[in-house]
Amino acid sequence: MSQVVTxxxxxxxxxxxxxxxxxxxxxxxxxxxxxxxxxxxxxRAWRQHWNHQLYKALEHQYQTGLEALNKNLPxxxxxLTFKQGRLQFRxxxxxxxxxxxREMKRFISIPNQFKGVSAQGEELIFSVMIDRNxxxxxxxxxKAEDLFSRLQAIQHKFKVHKQHILLTLILIMADLYxxxxxxxxHVYC
Length: 189
Fold this sequence. Notes:
Layout (H helix, E strand, L loop, with lengths): L1 H7 L7 H20 L8 H24 L1 H4 L6 E5 L2 E5 L2 H16 L1 H4 L14 H5 L2 H49 L6
Antiparallel strand pairs: 1-2
Helix pairs in contact: 1-2, 1-3
C-alpha cells in the first residue's frame, strides 16, 4: 500500500521513471507470490483491488498534470532569425507547434498505455480516465493556443521593430548622401 501512497505524490509528467519503478515493485511482488506457488487466477481479485488503488493515484496525478501541463512540458528552444529577408523561427513555427502538441498528446494518452498490475488478458480499467477528465482538455488546448498566439505576437513585434530600424537606416543614409552632395555638387549631363 505504501507504494501507491508514494505514487500519489509523484509527478506523472516530470517523474515518469519513478512511476515505472513503483509499478515494477508492485508487479515484482505479484511475481514473487506466483513463484511461491500462488496461482495467478487466485490473485485476480487482489490485483483488481490494487489496480483500483493505482487508478486513484494515477487519476490524481493525471488531473494535477493536466492543470499544469502547459507549464511543465519539456522546454522547446526557439531562435528568431533573420533569413532571406524575413524574420523566422528556427525550428519553424509549425514544427514547434507540432512538437508541443505531440508532447501534450503523449501525456493525455498515458492512461491508455497504463496496465497497472493486471495479468495478460485481464480487463484494463485505466483508459476510461481519459474520457472522465476530458473537460480539462479544453483548458489545456486553450492555454496552448494562447501560448502560440503570444509567440506569434513576439515575432510580429520584432517585424515592426525591424521595419522601423530599416526605415531609420534609409533615412540616415539619405541624409548622409544629401549632406555629401551639398558639399560636393556635381552636375550630371
